[in-house]
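Troubleshooting entry. The earlier prediction with magnesium ion gave an output that would not parse, so I re-checked the input for stray whitespace and re-submitted. Clean input:
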Amino acid sequence: MISAELARDLSRLSMELGRQLGVLIDRTGRIEVVIVGDKKEIMIPVLPMVRSAGGRLKGLRCVHTHLNGEGISEDDLMDLLFLRLDLMVVIKVQEDGLPERLYPAHLAPQQRDGKNWSFLPPVVPSQQEPTCLDIISDIEGQFAKFQPLSKIDAGRDRAILISVSSQGKALAQDSMDELVELAKSDDVVVLDTVIQRRHKASPHFIIGRGKLGEVMLKALLLNANLLVFDQELNASQTHSIIKHTELRVIDRTQLILDIFARRALSREGQVQIEMAQLKYMLPRLESRDDALSRLSGGIGTRGPGETKLEVDRRRIKDRLAKLEDKLKTISKERHHRRERRRKKDVPVISLVGYTNAGKSTLLNALTKSKILAEDKLFATLDPTSRRLRFPEDVEVIITDTVGFIRDLPKELLKAFQSTLEELHEADVLVHVVDVSNPRCEDQIRVVNDLLEDLDLYLPTLMVFNKIDLADPEVVAPLAAHYQAVPVCALRQETFAEFLNRARDLVVGKSRLQG
Ligand SMILES: Nc1nc2c(ncn2[C@@H]2O[C@H](COP(=O)(O)OP(=O)(O)OP(=O)(O)O)[C@@H](O)[C@H]2O)c(=O)[nH]1
Ligand SMILES: [Mg+2]
């Protein structure tokens, strides 16, 4: 762990100075960092990424002295955990300045008695056996048994999802379930979910410090590279969590923005999303040198200097201005297109509804088209229109739109304003509901609220989709309550009533207008 001579020198010096002394040693035995502490503690500075590591542990062990006969402290163990050290070794210094013994601790892949670490037997510096590297490779081996590194999905993010909530258990779980769906829709591998219920989110990490330690270890075990929070994080929370875990950290809003960024095909969609992302980022740029209080080991890094920050801000603002211009041009073009369509005076039906309700599937079935419909949230981002001929030669244009979701990030809602504006061109709305979803009534409410926010008060027909997956006894009373038409978008033969009512609504509306 450390040569007997060095242990002796550190002990002697430590005693003379009346301060703790420590070294961080890499796996080749090189001393990377020397730390001078005070009587009671040492502060481990920002750690370099060590080239020789390659495993899950940092590739550095910390060996430091303790005076006054103290053993490994709680703070030492927190450093071990949060810094993912290979080993934490305390040299107990005797009164005469000689090292008594080395007290090593290491991370353990499985909790024992609620602890994430194990202690190795104390050893006299001159009698260390087996060699330190054997011990470390044994520890790495224990971790690898849980999740061999070779099994890792190439290029996909591997995430632990976290929710900190003061809501009831069921609500928190519902919200988490949706977060899992969102993550999967963004091609993220979901390794585990953690719900912490607390009255008040911790200002520092949002989740409690102990819980964060647990999450850290889980990430280590499962080899996660990403933490996704269900709650919105502010800049300083994000930065603290990143610094302490060295994992990428995003929140639900960023996840949704990312899905949108991946999926948007139209030029307008892409511009809108980039704007939304930049706007979300702007207030989250780190605004100050955020040296952390000692979590345990003073793992503070310097934030970007004020000047660089200003440069970043200005760049983002410039880019935003450019995008704004671009968007204006595109919107104008679309406006012209719309005008042309209006002149033909064909009534427009717009499909709206919660994401994954089956809007695109229904449009495909009605118009025999093949637009993308899949079991992912936000499969559709770009509005699509098709012609549909009802019986008695009533012709309409039917448009598919982006799905809605609870707590739609306001940046995104704003960004999509112009796409959603298209809804104002509609004569009739068809509100598609996935009635097989146990939360469908909440989803109906979310959609109705959003329609209200958008000032859309149009004749609306509610459609209960996916009846093939729902219990008829549940559907019937609900359908009566909402005056909804049941369909299964996968089966044409279920469309008769829907077609009749939709046509009546369109015809009725044009009569009113005529
Ligand atoms: N069993 C069953 N599955 C359906 C039905 N309608 C749609 N689906 C499935 O539900 C999933 C979502 O359908 P989409 O049509 O993509 O839903 P959407 O409302 O367009 O969703 P977004 O575009 O993401 O907002 C797909 O996997 C469909 O195959 C139905 O009536 N029954
Ligand atoms: Mg769709």
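This one parsed fine. The first strand starts at residue 21 and ends at 26.
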